[in-house]
Amino acid sequence: MANSNTFDRRKFIKVCVGAGAAVAANPALVAEPAGELIPAERVRLVDPDGKTLDPGSLAIGESFVFHYPYVTTPCFLINLGSPAEPGAELTTADGRAYRWAGGAGPGRSIVAFSAICAHRMSYPTRTVSFIDYRHQPMSPSNTSSGWWSRGQVIYCCSEGSVYDPREGARVLSGPAPQPLAAVHLDYDPDEQALFATGVYGGSMFERFLTEFGLQVSLAHKRDDIRREARDTTVVWSMSEYTRTKAC
Length: 247
Prior knowledge:
Number of domains: 1
Largest sheet: 4 strands, mixed
Order of helices and strands: HEEEEEEEEEEEEEHHEEHE
Structural class: alpha+beta
CATH topology: Rieske Iron-sulfur Protein
CATH architecture: 3-layer Sandwich
Number of strands: 16
Mean pLDDT: 85
């Protein structure tokens, strides 16, 4: 996926077939604007032992990290504990409208987003993460209606951007100009498996890899930082993935 705006004929056909299956499984996807879903490989989510990830193993309130649509671009996987309903109307920084497709999994409570902050691209590394999911309120004693009193937000403490994962990572507070890009998930109930099949919203992956390419290459010990994730991608709990959570 060297250029997310250009697709070869093979990938276009595969995406059309996949999109048809996805719509059959989730009619809410019909409402997404045409062309908003950026296709990528259909990749199975697996645990650190390489086994198909059991959605039931995703502890409510914890954040998990996997890499998609490239092998070096981090994404969040979160079990919110209750259904994340589709339909939120969102807008990218350049004014493109799109619609949140909602959660996936057996209870439609599992969501996935780019873990690259839409402001200055803070992201989780093996050393430290300045962006993470907060399930509990930051100020439980505060009874106002602000985001800090309700919890269940993705918070970037480097600049104070706050996102709502229940509504497609809508920006609740701070300088971020757009929601986090959403990762589209398919759930196969027969296999009890989750698959990442594409991204939509304001994708910042190319910009991220351009500006942070050297750091990413050194951290992952690889030169092919733009290689597409294929077949499987490992899901790590945030506590396993990074040594220090700054937020």
